Amino acid sequence: TQLLEQSPQFLSIQEGENLTVYCNSSSVFSSLQWYRQEPGEGPVLLVTVVTGGEVKKLKRLTFQFGDARKDSSLHITAAQPGDTGLYLCADPSRTYKYIFGTGTRLKVLA
Amino acid sequence: GAGVSQSPSNKVTEKGKDVELRCDPISGHTALYWYRQRLGQGLEFLIYFQGNSAPDKSGLPSDRFSAERTGESVSTLTIQRTQQEDSAVYLCASSFSGGGETQYFGPGTRLLVL
By C-alpha distance, which of A95, A106, A97, A92 is closest to A34? Predict the structure, then answer.
């Protein structure tokens, strides 16, 4: 059974700082998705990466897919309080039976 | 257009009672999913509906859990004889079709079993 481990579990930083969170798999991903879940809301898809070594940028967020397709990272530059939330990675390769990681809970302090 | 809606947003119940959770998917979405999210954990797949096909119930944790969907619209998740370990956020999502399409999530129902 594939496991998705995310680290760190919790992260509290000051506004303006940079941060990186990680998602690691016990097996190779065919593709990987990152979601953000704000308090009291459902997860919202941020990005899908499909190619080993791929880098995608979404404003201040940079997503990287490892060359070996077993890991991914999300880097946030100059974090803002609005970035606060739970960041989840997911493997959508089993069509509808997504496997979600346990998440990184980020708090950005003003 | 309107997103996925769920009701109630919060539910507190006593151990042993039955609860019914409702999900209204995005209009036109044929696929509907239910997930459970325990405190501090990721999402756990429960059940998947796709059009008129038989649902995939393989994620339901026990026979106390059941779900129905009326055509391609509303779905209800029923938990009978609730237990304290059923306390969690129950999330519903829908997608235009199955097979890896982007899933759009509702805000969830927070269930607390006392």
Answer: A92
- Given CB atoms, is A85 within the 8 Å cutoff of chain B? no
Nearest CB to A102 within list B42, B59, B105? B42
Q: Taken in order A44, B98, B30, A4, is the CA torsion positive or negative?
A: negative
DSSP B26: P
Q: In A4-95, where does DSSP find H-type helix? A: none
In this complex, do A4 and B48 lie within 8 Å of one another by their Cβ atoms? Answer: no
pLDDT tens over chain B, length 114 residues: 589 999 999 999 999 999 999 999 999 999 999 999 998 788 999 999 998 888 999 999 999 999 999 888 899 999 999 999 999 999 999 999 877 778 999 999 999 999
- The 3-state DSSP class for residue A85 equals strand
Q: CA-based angle A29:A8:A19, to the nearest 5?
A: 95
Per the CB < 8 A criterion, the answer to whether B35 and B44 are in contact is yes
Pairing state of beta strands A10-14 and A104-109? parallel
Backbone angles phi, psi at A10, to 5 degrees: -135, 145
Of A9, A93, A100, the CB nearest to B43: A100
CA A21, CA B2: separation in Å to the nearest integer? 32
